[in-house]
Amino acid sequence: MDRLGDLDIFSRVATTGSMSQAARDLGMSPPVISKRIKRLEERLGTRLLQRTTRQIALTDAGRGFHERVLAILASVEEAENWVAQRAMLARGPLRISAPTTFGRLHVAPHLVRFMERYPEISLDLSLSDSFVDVVGDGFDVAIRIADLADTSLVARRLAPNHRVLCATPDYLEKHGAPATLADLVSHRLLVHNADHWRLEGPEGVVTVPVASAIATNSSEVIREAVIAGLGIALRSTWDVGPELRSNKLTIVLPRYRASHRVGIYAVYPSRRHLPQRTRVFIDFLLELYGSVPSWDQGLVLPPP
Questions:
Q1: 171 and 248 within one domain
Q2: What are phi and psi of 153, to 5 degrees?
Q3: Fewer CB within a 10 Å sphere, N or C end of the chain?
Q4: How confident is the prediction for the chain on average, in pLDDT?
Q5: What is the three-state SS of 166-198?
Q6: Global confidence as pTM
Protein backbone atom coordinates (compact mmCIF):
# COMPACT_ATOMS: atom_id res chain seq x y z
CA MET A 1 0.00 0.00 0.00
CA ASP A 2 1.41 3.38 -1.09
CA ARG A 3 0.79 5.32 2.11
CA LEU A 4 3.21 8.10 1.24
CA GLY A 5 1.58 8.49 -2.15
CA ASP A 6 -1.83 8.80 -0.48
CA LEU A 7 -0.48 11.56 1.74
CA ASP A 8 0.92 13.42 -1.27
CA ILE A 9 -2.43 13.17 -3.05
CA PHE A 10 -4.33 14.39 0.01
CA SER A 11 -1.96 17.32 0.43
CA ARG A 12 -2.36 18.33 -3.21
CA VAL A 13 -6.15 18.19 -3.00
CA ALA A 14 -6.13 20.13 0.27
CA THR A 15 -3.82 22.78 -1.18
CA THR A 16 -5.64 23.24 -4.50
CA GLY A 17 -9.15 22.66 -3.17
CA SER A 18 -9.90 20.64 -6.30
CA MET A 19 -9.59 16.97 -7.18
CA SER A 20 -9.50 17.86 -10.87
CA GLN A 21 -6.61 20.24 -10.37
CA ALA A 22 -4.78 17.74 -8.16
CA ALA A 23 -5.30 15.09 -10.85
CA ARG A 24 -3.78 17.37 -13.50
CA ASP A 25 -0.83 18.24 -11.26
CA LEU A 26 -0.11 14.60 -10.48
CA GLY A 27 -0.84 13.18 -13.92
CA MET A 28 -3.73 11.04 -12.67
CA SER A 29 -7.43 10.83 -13.45
CA PRO A 30 -10.01 12.43 -11.08
CA PRO A 31 -11.61 9.03 -10.30
CA VAL A 32 -8.23 7.67 -9.16
CA ILE A 33 -7.72 10.73 -6.95
CA SER A 34 -11.17 10.28 -5.44
CA LYS A 35 -10.57 6.59 -4.83
CA ARG A 36 -7.24 7.22 -3.08
CA ILE A 37 -8.76 9.90 -0.83
CA LYS A 38 -11.59 7.56 0.09
CA ARG A 39 -9.11 4.77 0.88
CA LEU A 40 -7.14 7.13 3.12
CA GLU A 41 -10.26 8.19 5.01
CA GLU A 42 -11.34 4.58 5.49
CA ARG A 43 -7.95 3.67 6.85
CA LEU A 44 -8.02 6.60 9.28
CA GLY A 45 -11.66 6.07 10.19
CA THR A 46 -12.58 9.73 9.76
CA ARG A 47 -13.65 12.17 7.08
CA LEU A 48 -10.92 14.54 5.97
CA LEU A 49 -12.73 16.46 3.23
CA GLN A 50 -16.21 17.90 2.87
CA ARG A 51 -17.27 17.58 -0.74
CA THR A 52 -19.92 19.75 -2.38
CA THR A 53 -20.75 20.28 -6.02
CA ARG A 54 -18.83 23.55 -6.00
CA GLN A 55 -15.87 23.09 -3.66
CA ILE A 56 -13.88 20.86 -1.36
CA ALA A 57 -13.20 21.95 2.20
CA LEU A 58 -11.15 20.42 4.98
CA THR A 59 -12.85 19.10 8.04
CA ASP A 60 -11.40 19.90 11.47
CA ALA A 61 -9.66 16.52 11.42
CA GLY A 62 -8.53 17.24 7.86
CA ARG A 63 -6.94 20.56 8.82
CA GLY A 64 -4.99 19.02 11.69
CA PHE A 65 -4.03 16.08 9.55
CA HIS A 66 -2.93 18.36 6.69
CA GLU A 67 -0.56 20.31 8.97
CA ARG A 68 1.13 17.09 10.01
CA VAL A 69 1.20 15.71 6.47
CA LEU A 70 2.96 18.86 5.26
CA ALA A 71 5.62 18.33 7.94
CA ILE A 72 6.01 14.66 6.93
CA LEU A 73 6.34 15.47 3.22
CA ALA A 74 8.85 18.24 3.96
CA SER A 75 10.93 15.78 6.01
CA VAL A 76 10.82 13.24 3.17
CA GLU A 77 11.95 15.87 0.68
CA GLU A 78 14.75 16.97 3.01
CA ALA A 79 15.86 13.35 3.43
CA GLU A 80 15.88 12.79 -0.34
CA ASN A 81 17.86 15.98 -0.90
CA TRP A 82 20.35 14.90 1.77
CA VAL A 83 20.90 11.55 0.06
CA ALA A 84 21.19 13.19 -3.36
CA GLN A 85 23.75 15.68 -2.08
CA ARG A 86 25.78 12.89 -0.44
CA ALA A 87 25.73 11.00 -3.73
CA MET A 88 27.29 14.05 -5.38
CA LEU A 89 30.10 14.22 -2.83
CA ALA A 90 33.39 12.59 -3.76
CA ARG A 91 33.94 10.49 -0.66
CA GLY A 92 34.40 6.94 0.55
CA PRO A 93 36.62 4.02 -0.49
CA LEU A 94 37.71 3.72 -4.13
CA ARG A 95 39.12 0.39 -5.34
CA ILE A 96 41.29 0.67 -8.45
CA SER A 97 43.02 -1.98 -10.53
CA ALA A 98 45.83 -1.10 -12.93
CA PRO A 99 48.55 -2.92 -14.90
CA THR A 100 51.71 -3.17 -12.83
CA THR A 101 54.13 -1.00 -14.82
CA PHE A 102 51.58 1.52 -16.04
CA GLY A 103 50.19 1.90 -12.54
CA ARG A 104 53.65 2.39 -11.08
CA LEU A 105 54.69 4.95 -13.71
CA HIS A 106 51.50 6.83 -14.53
CA VAL A 107 49.04 6.36 -11.66
CA ALA A 108 50.90 6.04 -8.36
CA PRO A 109 53.04 9.23 -8.72
CA HIS A 110 49.91 11.34 -9.07
CA LEU A 111 47.82 9.95 -6.21
CA VAL A 112 49.06 12.55 -3.74
CA ARG A 113 47.64 15.34 -5.89
CA PHE A 114 44.36 13.44 -6.32
CA MET A 115 43.98 12.86 -2.58
CA GLU A 116 44.80 16.47 -1.80
CA ARG A 117 42.01 17.47 -4.15
CA TYR A 118 39.58 14.87 -2.72
CA PRO A 119 40.60 14.29 0.91
CA GLU A 120 37.46 12.30 1.77
CA ILE A 121 38.30 9.53 -0.71
CA SER A 122 40.37 6.59 0.52
CA LEU A 123 42.24 4.64 -2.15
CA ASP A 124 42.91 0.94 -2.60
CA LEU A 125 45.20 0.52 -5.62
CA SER A 126 45.91 -3.02 -6.82
CA LEU A 127 48.67 -3.43 -9.41
CA SER A 128 48.51 -6.63 -11.43
CA ASP A 129 48.99 -7.75 -15.00
CA SER A 130 46.18 -10.28 -14.56
CA PHE A 131 42.85 -9.62 -16.24
CA VAL A 132 40.74 -8.82 -13.16
CA ASP A 133 37.00 -9.33 -12.92
CA VAL A 134 35.90 -5.77 -12.16
CA VAL A 135 32.50 -6.76 -10.79
CA GLY A 136 33.39 -10.10 -9.24
CA ASP A 137 36.55 -8.78 -7.55
CA GLY A 138 34.78 -5.69 -6.24
CA PHE A 139 36.70 -2.98 -8.10
CA ASP A 140 35.14 0.42 -8.74
CA VAL A 141 37.30 1.04 -11.79
CA ALA A 142 40.06 -0.76 -13.66
CA ILE A 143 42.62 0.65 -16.06
CA ARG A 144 43.09 -1.63 -19.04
CA ILE A 145 45.39 -1.47 -22.03
CA ALA A 146 43.49 -3.40 -24.65
CA ASP A 147 41.19 -3.39 -27.65
CA LEU A 148 37.84 -2.88 -25.93
CA ALA A 149 35.63 -2.61 -28.98
CA ASP A 150 33.52 -5.43 -27.54
CA THR A 151 33.00 -5.39 -23.77
CA SER A 152 30.05 -5.74 -21.43
CA LEU A 153 31.55 -3.07 -19.18
CA VAL A 154 31.50 0.67 -19.72
CA ALA A 155 34.84 1.77 -21.18
CA ARG A 156 36.16 5.35 -21.22
CA ARG A 157 39.21 5.92 -23.41
CA LEU A 158 41.88 7.75 -21.43
CA ALA A 159 44.74 7.87 -23.93
CA PRO A 160 46.11 6.22 -27.07
CA ASN A 161 48.59 3.37 -26.77
CA HIS A 162 51.41 3.48 -29.31
CA ARG A 163 53.54 0.31 -29.38
CA VAL A 164 56.64 0.34 -31.54
CA LEU A 165 59.56 -1.95 -32.21
CA CYS A 166 62.73 -0.55 -30.68
CA ALA A 167 66.32 -1.30 -29.74
CA THR A 168 69.40 0.56 -28.57
CA PRO A 169 71.68 2.26 -31.12
CA ASP A 170 74.54 0.05 -29.88
CA TYR A 171 72.59 -3.13 -30.57
CA LEU A 172 71.66 -1.94 -34.06
CA GLU A 173 75.24 -0.91 -34.80
CA LYS A 174 76.51 -4.36 -33.83
CA HIS A 175 73.79 -6.44 -35.49
CA GLY A 176 72.45 -4.14 -38.19
CA ALA A 177 69.01 -2.59 -38.42
CA PRO A 178 66.38 -4.90 -39.93
CA ALA A 179 64.98 -3.58 -43.22
CA THR A 180 62.02 -5.98 -43.43
CA LEU A 181 59.97 -8.13 -41.09
CA ALA A 182 61.73 -11.18 -42.52
CA ASP A 183 65.03 -9.79 -41.23
CA LEU A 184 63.80 -10.12 -37.63
CA VAL A 185 64.48 -13.86 -37.74
CA SER A 186 68.22 -13.16 -37.51
CA HIS A 187 67.86 -10.85 -34.52
CA ARG A 188 67.59 -11.41 -30.79
CA LEU A 189 63.94 -10.68 -29.94
CA LEU A 190 62.57 -9.94 -26.51
CA VAL A 191 59.01 -10.69 -25.44
CA HIS A 192 57.12 -11.91 -22.38
CA ASN A 193 54.12 -14.23 -22.24
CA ALA A 194 53.71 -14.47 -26.02
CA ASP A 195 55.07 -16.33 -29.00
CA HIS A 196 54.19 -13.79 -31.68
CA TRP A 197 53.77 -10.09 -32.44
CA ARG A 198 50.63 -8.90 -34.17
CA LEU A 199 51.56 -5.81 -36.16
CA GLU A 200 49.91 -3.39 -38.55
CA GLY A 201 51.89 -2.26 -41.57
CA PRO A 202 51.61 -1.26 -45.23
CA GLU A 203 50.16 -4.67 -46.14
CA GLY A 204 47.69 -4.70 -43.28
CA VAL A 205 47.78 -6.91 -40.20
CA VAL A 206 50.67 -9.36 -40.02
CA THR A 207 51.69 -11.92 -37.40
CA VAL A 208 55.38 -12.32 -36.65
CA PRO A 209 56.50 -15.47 -34.76
CA VAL A 210 58.77 -14.59 -31.85
CA ALA A 211 61.16 -16.82 -29.94
CA SER A 212 62.25 -14.69 -27.01
CA ALA A 213 65.89 -14.63 -25.99
CA ILE A 214 64.70 -14.30 -22.38
CA ALA A 215 61.94 -16.37 -20.82
CA THR A 216 60.02 -14.25 -18.30
CA ASN A 217 56.50 -13.39 -17.23
CA SER A 218 57.54 -9.83 -16.40
CA SER A 219 57.13 -6.97 -18.82
CA GLU A 220 59.56 -4.93 -16.72
CA VAL A 221 62.30 -7.53 -17.25
CA ILE A 222 61.87 -7.14 -21.01
CA ARG A 223 61.98 -3.36 -20.64
CA GLU A 224 65.28 -3.51 -18.79
CA ALA A 225 66.66 -6.00 -21.29
CA VAL A 226 65.94 -3.84 -24.33
CA ILE A 227 67.34 -0.73 -22.62
CA ALA A 228 70.46 -2.74 -21.76
CA GLY A 229 70.93 -3.49 -25.47
CA LEU A 230 70.06 -7.20 -25.47
CA GLY A 231 67.74 -7.12 -28.48
CA ILE A 232 64.59 -5.79 -30.15
CA ALA A 233 61.32 -5.45 -28.26
CA LEU A 234 57.80 -4.21 -28.90
CA ARG A 235 57.20 -1.53 -26.28
CA SER A 236 54.58 1.09 -25.52
CA THR A 237 55.59 4.73 -25.63
CA TRP A 238 54.17 5.21 -22.13
CA ASP A 239 56.83 2.70 -21.04
CA VAL A 240 59.89 3.85 -23.02
CA GLY A 241 58.97 7.40 -24.07
CA PRO A 242 61.88 9.02 -22.17
CA GLU A 243 64.37 6.55 -23.70
CA LEU A 244 63.05 7.26 -27.20
CA ARG A 245 63.27 11.01 -26.64
CA SER A 246 66.83 10.79 -25.33
CA ASN A 247 67.85 8.41 -28.17
CA LYS A 248 68.73 5.65 -25.73
CA LEU A 249 66.30 3.63 -27.83
CA THR A 250 65.62 3.83 -31.56
CA ILE A 251 62.45 2.86 -33.37
CA VAL A 252 62.97 -0.17 -35.61
CA LEU A 253 60.90 -0.83 -38.75
CA PRO A 254 58.89 2.39 -38.21
CA ARG A 255 56.23 1.41 -40.75
CA TYR A 256 55.06 -1.33 -38.37
CA ARG A 257 53.44 -1.01 -34.96
CA ALA A 258 50.92 -2.77 -32.77
CA SER A 259 47.20 -2.33 -33.42
CA HIS A 260 45.96 1.26 -33.31
CA ARG A 261 42.71 -0.12 -31.84
CA VAL A 262 44.45 -0.82 -28.54
CA GLY A 263 44.04 2.07 -26.12
CA ILE A 264 44.30 2.91 -22.44
CA TYR A 265 40.84 2.71 -20.89
CA ALA A 266 39.06 3.14 -17.61
CA VAL A 267 36.43 0.43 -17.31
CA TYR A 268 33.65 0.26 -14.75
CA PRO A 269 30.43 -1.72 -14.33
CA SER A 270 27.69 0.76 -15.24
CA ARG A 271 26.92 4.39 -16.06
CA ARG A 272 23.83 4.28 -13.85
CA HIS A 273 24.40 5.44 -10.29
CA LEU A 274 28.12 5.86 -10.92
CA PRO A 275 29.62 6.91 -7.56
CA GLN A 276 30.99 10.42 -7.60
CA ARG A 277 34.34 9.15 -6.28
CA THR A 278 34.69 6.97 -9.40
CA ARG A 279 33.61 9.77 -11.70
CA VAL A 280 36.12 12.29 -10.33
CA PHE A 281 38.96 9.75 -10.51
CA ILE A 282 38.27 9.08 -14.19
CA ASP A 283 38.02 12.82 -14.84
CA PHE A 284 41.31 13.31 -12.99
CA LEU A 285 43.08 10.80 -15.26
CA LEU A 286 41.59 12.41 -18.38
CA GLU A 287 42.86 15.78 -17.22
CA LEU A 288 46.22 14.30 -16.27
CA TYR A 289 46.92 12.56 -19.58
CA GLY A 290 45.30 15.09 -21.90
CA SER A 291 44.95 14.86 -25.67
CA VAL A 292 48.70 14.19 -26.02
CA PRO A 293 49.96 12.32 -22.94
CA SER A 294 53.24 13.42 -21.40
CA TRP A 295 54.95 10.21 -22.52
CA ASP A 296 54.20 11.01 -26.20
CA GLN A 297 55.15 14.68 -26.06
CA GLY A 298 58.25 15.46 -28.11
CA LEU A 299 58.19 12.10 -29.90
CA VAL A 300 58.11 11.91 -33.67
CA LEU A 301 56.03 8.82 -34.27
CA PRO A 302 55.57 7.35 -37.75
CA PRO A 303 51.96 7.37 -38.96
CA PRO A 304 50.05 4.15 -38.30
A1: yes
A2: -90, 165
A3: N
A4: 88
A5: EECHHHHHHHCCCCCHHHHHHCCEECCCCCEEE
A6: 0.69
